Amino acid sequence: MEVSIWLGRRGMMSKLVLVNGKIYVDRGMFAEAVYAKDDTICAVGTKDEVLAAAGEAEVIDLEGKTVIPGLNDSHMHLLNVGMGFAQAKIIGVTSMEELIGRVKAFMEERPEEAKNGILSKGWNQDLFTDGKRMPTRYDLDRISTEIPIVLRRVCGHVASANSKVIELLGLDENMVHVDGGTIETDENGRPNGIFTENAIALAADLIPKYTLEDNKRLLLQAADYALAHGITSVQSNDVGNGQLPMEDVFKLLHEVYDADLCKLRYRHQVCVHSVEEFKNYVENGEFKTGVYDNPKMLALGPVKLFKDGSLGGRTATMRNGYLDDPGNYGVETRSNEDMEAICRIADQAGIQVVTHVIGDKAIEDVIGNYEHVLRDGKNPLRHTLIHCQITDRPMMERIAKDDILVAYQPIFLDYDMHVVTSRCGEVLSSTSYAFKTAKELGIHVSYGTDSPVENCNPFPNLYSAVTRKDKNGYPERGFYPEECVDVSDAVDAYTAGSAYNEFCEAFKGRIKPGYLADMVVLDRDIFTCDPMEIRDILPEMTIVGGKVVYKKK
């Protein structure tokens, strides 16, 4: 792509023009050129129209490349993505032996970082070829019994710890009860090193935390990775997710954005752990006193809650239990009474609520919680269901009737399609991950990755929504293909849909006059390429606020 200056009559300003492109405006509508002044799109149309409107400006010849709005991940964990760059790489391991080997190698290669303990995330027992069981303390003891080691499952809702963790917690002698979580035991009643849900913090808190400067560096590294993959906005849950004290995360983000160090737009999703904690944050904390002078770059956002766990870890709550684990109905991580109380406090304070729900029981319960704070049957605070995976048709119709938003992660299908039928049965599986049904019912849908649960690269996510196939192209027609969406619907969910989720739909998520100049130039045409190629698309250029923040070398 060539860059030049087109000379006009007016003086030089912060202006950018893209010409000779295929610029996505709306379904079936494309333009040849776009002009942005400062951070706002001013004109979209033909090359001649746009150049005439722009006057003197920086001009980029797209040479026929496709441009879409900047992608907006509606639920992820940006700081955790950064931390992953500094941890043992255990995502995608295919055996217990490989898991143990990778962590041992990390200890040998980075002894200073490992000497006081190791915390990492990414194993998935269903990928193990040497036995599909979760790692126990005895497996991790083969890595070390001298330092605490905590390895979280890819979903984040189950963790394995070694015997050093059990020793430091005193659990062999004195087991403890954790509300909304479990410490699993072996046949002798001794802790086996497996922790679920709220109990994970007991183990994870033993691992030394990074410094503020370390976390800034890792956050910016994650932001650069996101920008290089076409993400221009994130709605990120880093406050209250157990990695750092809540106040430290607020401070970190304020310092980064006050110093204009980050070009990625960021909206907080704030986890709270009790009714009293939330009440305090509303009356005396960040929801009351936080200052956000430039909310288009850094905004406060909703309170984020957990209602259940994960499908892969069998901790998502199910109305009829798990077919492949009789008697297991999942783990409820927050009671209905607490949910009700937090929703009512949020309603009185005008705060949006977004809730992690995966199993049909969790979804049903939280719909009920939200219904109790609807206003004349409406949902003006745009309370949202994050994940919303296991559903039936009446549940989807109820979500639509209540105008409740859904934040989907289509990429979850890459793994879940291989286990959902055994866990939930064919009938319920056929109505779950209901992307097309949601669109047809008029539900406001957004897309994200829950990264680092999945890589935040949005294009495998878009591929999953369009094809409903795993990364190997299975199954040939897609997993219940009647729920496939087309490319326009998928892109819209990732852009305009995500903007709606954060009350920004009037100025964000489209390439139209008056909208923020956030755009991505693609290396191939997502609208006409073989759908199997969508997963391999990469940006040639990412633009945020009318400025090029990433260019492929």
List the helices and strands and how they pair.
Layout: E1 2-6, E2 15-19, E3 22-26, E4 29-31, E5 33-37, E6 40-45, H1 47-54, E7 57-61, E8 66-69, E9 71-76, H2 78-84, H3 96-109, H4 111-114, E10 118-123, H5 137-140, E11 149-153, E12 158-161, H6 163-169, E13 181-185, E14 191-197, H7 200-204, H8 212-228, E15 231-236, H9 246-258, E16 265-268, E17 270-271, H10 275-283, H11 286-289, E18 298-299, E19 303-306, H12 336-349, E20 353-357, H13 360-371, E21 384-387, H14 393-401, E22 405-408, H15 413-416, H16 420-424, H17 426-430, H18 435-441, E23 445-447, H19 458-467, H20 487-501, E24 519-522, E25 539-544, E26 547-551
Parallel strand pairs: 2-7, 3-8, 9-15, 10-11, 15-16, 16-18, 17-19, 19-20, 20-21, 21-22, 22-23
Antiparallel strand pairs: 1-7, 2-5, 3-4, 5-6, 8-24, 11-12, 12-14, 13-14, 24-25, 25-26
Helix pairs in contact: 2-8, 10-12, 12-13
What does this structure look like?
It is built from 20 helices and 26 strands. By secondary structure, the chain is an alpha/beta fold. Strand 25 and strand 26 form a beta hairpin. The chain has a six-stranded mixed β-sheet with strand order 4-3-8-24-25-26, with helices on one face. A six-stranded parallel β-sheet has the order 17-19-20-21-22-23. The chain has three domains: 2-70 and 514-551, Urease, subunit C, domain 1; 88-204, Diaminopimelate Epimerase, Chain A, domain 1; 212-501, TIM Barrel (Alpha-Beta Barrel).
